[in-house]
Specification:
binds (~{Z})-2-methylbut-2-enedioic acid, five-stranded parallel beta sheet, alpha/beta, Rossmann fold, binds iron/sulfur cluster
Length: 350
Amino acid sequence: SDPDLVARAAAAKAKLGDKVFILGHHYQRDEVIQFADVTGDSFKLARDAAARPEAEYIVFCGVHFMAESADILTTERQQVVLPDLAAGCSMADMATAEQVAECWDQLVDAGVADSVVPVAYMNSSADIKAFTGRHGGTICTSSNAKRALEWAFEQGEKVLFLPDQHLGRNTAVRDMGLSLDDCVVYNPHKPNGGLTAEELRAAKMILWRGHCSVHGRFSLDSVNEVRERVPGVTVLVHPECKHEVVEAADMVGSTEYIIKALDAAEPGSKWAIGTELNLVRRLANAHPDKEIVFLDRSVCFCSTMNRIDLPHLVWALESLADGRVPNVITVDPETEKFAKLALDQMLALP
Ligand code: CIZ
Ligand code: SF4
């Protein structure tokens, strides 16, 4: 990265001292990660920020829903800054508050709403988390999705899983022993979600039709091709990948799981990883004694994660050092209250 920008970021950060705490998501660029005080997945980062009440400014190098979650979990006094407001998440954007309210009305009309427990993936807007809290549901991450579903099926007969259909389906089928026929997909762009009342009554898992634009691009061909290209390879993918990809892989797990699996791997072992490219490259560099390849070379970075680059970070830090607080992400108190209810339910999962 540009040595001038590196020096400016370092100077602004030094001037701010303990007043600033920089969070770096695993999918961020190296040029940004070098300035992170901690790295992690979205949930770990939000908790790390909450554990630093002396930091007035939390600079969140990640995407919008993550900055919202950090605002929800941090104190009133702490301000969360997103260095580029255009860093959204296409998956989170696939479920809006209006669409989900319409879906719920339909569940009410079909006479099933009383038996439905919403489970929302961490990768969702604060509005969707608040909807989940209002209706007695829970948030989940890719690490605790199984426990979240076990809990939800103790509370009710059906789950409405938002917004990632793949994580929902993979967890239901692989971990809960449900069949693909127990799952239906609610498409917010079709009248009535494209589902009849009978279909809703018969379903156990109602999956929102959302997906990750990075993980959703790995295909069964990606897996077959890498097995030919790298004999003896172990294929390890994130559960946001399509069901057929997850079924064809050798191992499946969250970002933190992938990192730990590679730490524990034997020298000389060969791995194909199906997750975001910045992380895969960093892992390959960190483990020169292992052969680590990207599952599909035609799949690219998460484009919105990559919007946070060194120039944006420098701008955010220099603004803070000058006494201006740019790009503050705030969740209104009413939304925050119900979103926190759903997040607290996740923390209380058995
Ligand atoms: O796919 C993502 O963006 C993930 C896994 C985010 C996170 O850290 O929860
Ligand atoms: Fe959203 Fe996928 Fe990017 Fe994560 S990797 S921020 S889920 S689009």
